[in-house]
């Protein structure tokens, strides 16, 4: 790369604003719980406000479900299971799921804006990734509903019953789709608990379920905080808990479920290693590293948050990386040119600040993007730490933010040892033009997903999930059915 | 055993890392028949023995998994050969421990040996049954393969001294895990004999480790151990299993609470495998 290009300030080239209209979201002032096919007021009439993290403005008032409400929802799910859904043929279930997929596509622009408003993620990502993938998941599992005999679990595999599903705030609608689509295809009924800070797209999905004329009670959606989730986990009428979130909460859920007969799958945290060998394709690799950690503000359980670079190319990679980080456009999530949006909540921002402060304290070299940040809202500039040691907290703990820790290695053996030096095991990346080495490394990585010369790719046909303390069970693909079948 | 000579009796010891130590604690306990007649003094393993066994199992796991699936099948089949040639000894101990007629004991040994053969044949088929090629929407070759969870703890069935033990330890071993097993407390000698046979079956040291002793004393250490990836709670009652499952959750272990229908089943083979999915770009 010529010095002229390296030293030019491409970041100064300005884009005109290209905002998507917030009005497309058609948000209502308040939303009730979705139980037995109807929006209902919670028994206690309690509510909370969900904010737009990009400007801290309130978006809507959302019902806070109590344990009595969860009880209602589970009862509705049980009733629907016993009287309707367990008697609905696979072919009919299939057609309901196809309807839902189509309705998501029809309302995709609205859903993308809702998602971006509530979550803070760039509209480019919600429009091109979250919403299309959510529809694709329903499409994929729709086709399974009448083909379960062929899924490899013996003839006529049975559903589990009522599934309690607790999802995180980082991909609200997509996680709802990952949970609901396989559960419904397998013949279960569901009580879904969206994250406290991002309930809105699930409530739009509830409207879609009404439009699809899904029988009442087959899917119930209870909004609320951690107490709502705990009530669902502890409810004796639930046959299955599926949780996506932090390892800390997942551990507590596994402990609570241990003394029951509930089935459990967990998709938890990660500290993914993105391994760069000296022969890696340079431009794709830099983009892949950026995508690996700054996609969705780094609020990604499988984020490539530890970059392991072969020593011979480490200086060059770091220089190019920092130059690229400076070009990331941080700001209004509704702007179609935005690369990095808002941090989802004040609590998450505080967590990121705390851990990055440790990064400096423990002796890593910090580079922070020079981008301007908006005055209001929750923002964190893309940050890269070099000279990170394996013992540093920023190399061990999940930051769940736009923060990359860079470490180096000399040999493939050392890369594998460092990549596996974590209690997590969700995802890793390998960058090399040498296929035999890539597969050699992939065989040795203790991770559920390995991306070779790419990162953060998702597809409904591809099983996703972790090993070790990143959880167990798979979502996606034929394997994803196993989580909702009594096999 | 002729009547004019005094027979040479065996000391039943632990199996850790391919060696047969007495418990580091020096303790032993008396194993009797169901009628209370003396069978043997068996090593009473300690919590430290369990931890040593986990270290051995961890060290052996990568090596065991690095063997070809064909090779792992050969090793397990070799165990069936060894068991067949010593089947009378196994049957005698199954008879003593389980209080059976000689004929019934022989039948159980036959089933156990046939089950070893069944698992030997699985090693190079499981990837085709549980794996897949995934047609993702994009220029990627995407495939999923079953990989072992790692180190699996087995709290073996208390009643079925050999058959259930074979299921519990060979299902995870066949798919590439290494195992630390706590044998039936009152009926440990058939498991100990099977352990001896692994030493002449090309099992690398540490692939199967067996601790005899008091289940209530050593099982909690196994369930709580942070370097154990999964645990089979087949040999404890429901209340104790609940406690162990609770402590296993501390490190997000995979927990199998087998039912009787799980013997020689795909569910057992699936219990301690992980699905690893690789995406590789396709391009010119």
Identify the notable features of this structure and list them briefly.
heterodimer; A: 487 residues; six-stranded mixed beta sheet; globular; B: 284 residues; five-stranded parallel beta sheet; three-stranded antiparallel beta sheet; 44% helix; 18% strand
- Write down the overall mean pLDDT of chain A: 96
Name the overall outline of chain A.
Answer: globular
| Biggest pleated-sheet summary of chain A | 7 strands, mixed
Number of domains of chain B: 1
Largest two-chain interface: A-B, 45 and 36 residues
Tally of strands of chain A: 18
Helix content of chain A: 25-40%
- Main-sheet strand order of chain B equals 7-6-5-8-9
Can you summarize this structure?
Chain A has about 475 residues and is α/β, with parallel strands linked by helices. Chain A has helices spanning about 5, 65-85, 90-105, 110-120, 125-145, 170-185, 200-210, 225-235, 245-255, 280-295, 315-325, 345-360, 395, 410-420, 435-445; strands spanning about 30, 35, 40, 45-50, 55-65, 160-165, 190-195, 220, 240-245, 265, 275, 305-310, 365-370, 385, 405-410, 425-430, 450, 470.
Architecture overview:
The complex is a heterodimer of chains A (487) and B (284). Chain A is α/β, with parallel strands linked by helices and 487 residues long. Chain A is 38% helix and 16% strand. Chain A has helices at 3-7, 67-83, 90-106, 108-119, 123-144, 172-185, 200-211, 226-234, 247-257, 282-294, 314-327, 346-361, 393-396, 412-419, 435-444; strands spanning 30-31, 33-35, 38-40, 47-52, 57-63, 162-166, 189-193, 219-221, 240-244, 263-267, 273-276, 306-310, 365-368, 383-386, 403-409, 427-431, 449-452, 471-472. In chain A, the strands form 4 sheets. Chain A has a 7-stranded mixed beta sheet with strand order 13-14-15-12-11-16-17, sandwiched between helices. A 6-stranded mixed beta sheet of chain A has the order 8-7-6-9-10-18, with helices on both faces. A 3-stranded mixed beta sheet of chain A has the order 1-5-4, covered by helices on one side. In chain A, helix 3 packs antiparallel against helix 5 (123-144) and helix 5 (123-144) runs parallel beside helix 6 (172-185). The model of chain A has no long low-confidence stretch (mean pLDDT 96). Chain B has one domain (11-281): Aldehyde Dehydrogenase, Chain A, domain 1, CATH 3.40.605.10. Chain B is α/β, with parallel strands linked by helices and 284 residues long. Chain B is built from 10 helices and 10 strands. Chain B has helices at residues 47-66, 69-85, 87-98, 102-122, 126-130, 163-174, 189-198, 215-224, 238-248, 266-271; strands spanning 28-32, 38-43, 132-133, 140-148, 151-155, 178-182, 208-211, 230-232, 254-256, 273-281. Chain B has a 5-stranded parallel beta sheet with strand order 7-6-5-8-9, sandwiched between helices. Chain B has a 3-stranded antiparallel beta sheet with strand order 3-4-10. Classes of the chains: A alpha/beta (487), B alpha/beta (284). Strand 17 (449-452) of chain A pairs parallel with strand 10 (273-281) of chain B, so a sheet runs across the interface.
């Amino acid at each position: 790369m010529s010095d002229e290009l390296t030293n030019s300030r491409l970041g100064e080239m300005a884009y005109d604003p290209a905002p998507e209209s917030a009005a497309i979201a058609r948000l209502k002032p308040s939303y009730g719980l979705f139980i037995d096919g109807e929006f209902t007021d919670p028994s206690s009439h309690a509510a909370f406000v969900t904010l737009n993290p990009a400007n801290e403005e309130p978006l809507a008032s959302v019902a806070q479900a109590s344990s009595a409400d969860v009880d209602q929802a589970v009862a509705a799910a049980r009733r629907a299971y016993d009287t309707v859904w367990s008697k609905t043929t696979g072919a009919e279930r299939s057609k309901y799921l196809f309807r839902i997929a189509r309705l998501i596509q029809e309302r995709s622009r609205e859903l993308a804006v809702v998602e971006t408003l509530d979550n803070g993620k760039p509209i480019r990502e919600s429009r091109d990734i979250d919403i299309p993938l959510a529809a694709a998941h329903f499409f994929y599992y729709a086709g399974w509903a009448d083909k379960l005999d062929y899924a490899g679990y013996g003839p006529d595999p049975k559903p589990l019953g009522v599934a309690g599903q607790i999802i995180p705030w980082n991909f609200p609608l997509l996680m709802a789709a990952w949970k609901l689509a396989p559960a419904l295809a397998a013949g279960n009924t569901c009580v879904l608990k969206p994250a406290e800070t991002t309930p809105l797209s699930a409530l739009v999905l509830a409207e879609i379920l009404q439009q699809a004329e899904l029988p009442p009670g087959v899917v119930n959606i209870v909004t609320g905080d951690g107490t709502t989730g705990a009530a669902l986990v502890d409810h004796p009428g639930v046959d299955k808990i599926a949780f996506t979130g932090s390892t800390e909460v997942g551990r507590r859920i596994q402990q609570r479920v241990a003394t029951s007969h509930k089935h459990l799958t967990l998709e938890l945290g990660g500290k993914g290693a993105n391994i760069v060998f000296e022969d890696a394709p340079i431009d794709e690799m830099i983009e892949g590293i950026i995508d690996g950690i700054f996609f969705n503000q780094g609020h990604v359980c499988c984020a490539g948050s530890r970059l392991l670079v072969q020593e011979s190319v480490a200086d060059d990679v770091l220089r190019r990386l920092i130059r690229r980080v400076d070009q990331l456009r941080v700001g209004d999530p509704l702007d179609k040119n935005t690369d990095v949006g808002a941090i989802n909540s004040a609590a998450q921002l505080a967590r990121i600040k705390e851990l990055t402060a440790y990064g400096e304290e423990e002796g890593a070299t910090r580079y922070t993007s020079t981008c301007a940040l908006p005055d209001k809202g929750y923002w964190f500039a893309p940050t890269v730490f070099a000279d990170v040691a394996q013992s540093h907290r920023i190399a061990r703990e999940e930051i769940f933010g736009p923060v990359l820790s860079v470490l180096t290695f000399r040999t493939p053996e050392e890369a594998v040892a460092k990549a596996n030096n974590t209690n997590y095991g969700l995802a890793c990346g390998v960058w090399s033009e040498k296929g035999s080495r890539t597969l050699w490394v992939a065989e040795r990585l203790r991770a559920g997903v390995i991306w070779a010369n790419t990162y953060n790719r998702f597809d409904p046909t591809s099983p996703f999930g972790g090993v070790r303390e990143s959880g167990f069970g798979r979502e996606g693909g034929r394997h994803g059915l196993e989580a909702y079948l009594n096999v | 055993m002729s009547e004019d000579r005094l027979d040479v009796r065996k000391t039943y010891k632990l199996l850790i890392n391919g060696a047969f130590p007495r418990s580091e604690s020096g303790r032993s306990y008396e194993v009797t028949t169901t009628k209370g007649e003396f069978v043997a003094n068996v090593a009473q393993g300690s919590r430290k023995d369990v931890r040593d066994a986990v270290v051995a199992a961890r060290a052996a796991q990568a090596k065991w998994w690095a063997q070809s699936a064909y090779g792992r099948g050969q090793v397990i089949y070799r165990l069936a050969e060894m068991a067949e040639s010593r089947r009378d000894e196994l049957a005698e101990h199954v008879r003593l421990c389980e209080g059976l007629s000689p004929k019934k004991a022989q039948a159980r040994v036959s089933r156990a040996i046939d089950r070893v053969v069944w698992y030997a044949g699985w090693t190079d088929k499981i990837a085709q049954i549980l794996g897949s090629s995934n047609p993702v929407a994009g220029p990627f070759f995407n495939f999923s393969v079953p990989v072992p969870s790692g180190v699996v703890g087995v709290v073996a069935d208390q009643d079925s001294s050999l058959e259930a033990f074979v299921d519990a330890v060979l299902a995870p071993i066949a798919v590439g895990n290494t195992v630390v097993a706590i044998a039936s407390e009152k009926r440990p000698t058939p498991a100990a004999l099977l352990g001896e046979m692994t030493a002449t079956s090309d099992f690398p040291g540490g692939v199967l480790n067996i601790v005899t002793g008091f289940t209530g004393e050593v099982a909690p250490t196994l369930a709580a151990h942070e370097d154990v990836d999964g645990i089979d709670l087949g040999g404890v009652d429901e209340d104790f299993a609940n406690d162990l499952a609770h402590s296993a959750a501390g490190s997000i272990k995979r927990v199998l609470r087998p039912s009787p229908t799980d013997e020689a089943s795909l569910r057992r083979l699936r219990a301690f495998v992980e699905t690893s999915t690789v995406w590789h770009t396709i391009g010119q």
